[in-house]
Amino acid sequence: MLESPNQTTPESSDGATISRPALPAAGDIVVPFEGACGIAEAGAIRARLLAALSTPDAKRVVVDCRAVTEADLTFLQILLAARAGGQDAGRPVVLAAPASGALASALISGGFAHPDGPEQGWLNPFWSGH
């Protein structure tokens, strides 16, 4: 059974919920990133996101950061700029899955996590895959 994007479903006996990744749907453009995503790769990252946002029949851009091994503030800024550009163009930009690994570490270092830690939630719901 297919679930709607970012649906949360009870997964454990203690009632905890797990956020499901944004499932690609018709009209989605998936932009996967892997390895290092920092200032040295900024031009290529920006170009890939702009190309996805410029695709005429794209309904939504799904950014997959699960294979990112290094991320810095530059990457975060590019992702936020793409999100803003997507909103302006009527093409939402979403994460394929909630921030984790290197992306989560960059968010914590950059002050994007709740002051009591990321387990309390991200300061911007974009990072939780919504």
Automatic annotation (TrEMBL):
Top-rank taxon, per record: Bacteria
Stretches assigned to the STAS domain: 27-130
Name of protein: STAS domain-containing protein
Organism the protein comes from: Roseospira marina
